[in-house]
Amino acid sequence: MSARKFKDYYSILKVARNATQADIKKAYVQLAKIYHPDLLESSDPKKAFKEATFKEITEAYSVLNNPRRRSEYNLEIYELEKEKAANHSDIDGMARPPPDPITYELSEEEKQALGIQLKKIRNRKIRRLFIIVLVLFGIGWYFKLKYIFLRMYNRDINNKVIFKDKEGVDSEMIEEVNKKFVQELQRVREEREKMNIMRHPTKKMTTTTSSKKQENKEEE
Fold first, then answer.
1. Cα-flanking dihedrals φ and ψ of residue 199, to 5°?
2. Is the pTM here over 0.85, yes or no?
3. For residue 44, what are the contacts with CB-CB under 8 A and spacing of at least 6?
4. Which residue intervals make up region (Disordered) (predicted)?
5. Which is the most buried residue in 5, 53, 128, 158, by most CB within 10 A?
6. Tens digit of pLDDT for each residue in 151-184?
7. Assigned CATH for 9-107
8. Which residue has the higher pLDDT, 95 or 35?
9. Residue 62 clears pLDDT 80, i.e. is over it
């Protein structure tokens, strides 16, 4: 681990690990009033010390004031403390629980930024799911249309399906498909005839009457 990982930025800024961004900024401003080089007198015997301290304060603030860098830093502390706990357990022979993860309260700005990121992630997942559904839907329609095309291509003038045993298609399956198709075709025709009767009942009755008259003439 680098030296930076051993620096306790929370202690440098004198804030708790669960401090808010507002608390961190407030602490930085207060410390800057004491250690900022522009506010130091040249005759101050602790000038060099204060300048070095202010560099550490600035470094700590640059990390803790950035939500992403702060999260990474908190994770580094957690891993470091967990490693120390494991080393102590090896020495005294007693297992110790790992430290609790570092948490802090989010500011309104951080909550808003986090919400935007979560919304983007959610939208990406929705888009991926939509694309997957479209692909699966397209594959399904491809095979369905292929079947319809083959069925129409192999139909003769009497509307009887004449599938040929091509491409290794099982003959029993072809026979079953032909049978179902013919049944379906007959059902559609019957429904169309019923619809025509319902739409033109007078025409149907006239046709029936004419047929009966023709039959009577033939009998005479």
1. -80, -35
2. no
3. 50
4. 194-220
5. 53
6. 554 544 444 444 444 444 455 555 666 676 667 7
7. 1.10.287.110
8. 35
9. yes
Q: Amino acid identity of 178?
A: N
The closest of 120, 124, 11, 121 to 57, measured between CA atoms, is: 11
pLDDT at 199: 66
* Domain ranges, ordered by start, for the chain: 9-107, 108-157
Matching residue, tokens 């692909």: 135
pLDDT (0 to 100) of residue 98: 54
Q: How far apart are the first and last CA of the chain?
A: 118
Q: Which range is least confidently modeled, 64-68, 72-76, 132-136?
A: 132-136
Q: Which two tokens stand for residue 107?
A: 């500011």
Distance between CA atoms of residues 74 and 99, nearest Å: 12
The span from the CA of 32 to the CA of 26, in Å, is: 10
How many beta carbons lie within 10 A of that of residue 140, not counting itself? 10
Two structure tokens written together for 87: 């080393």
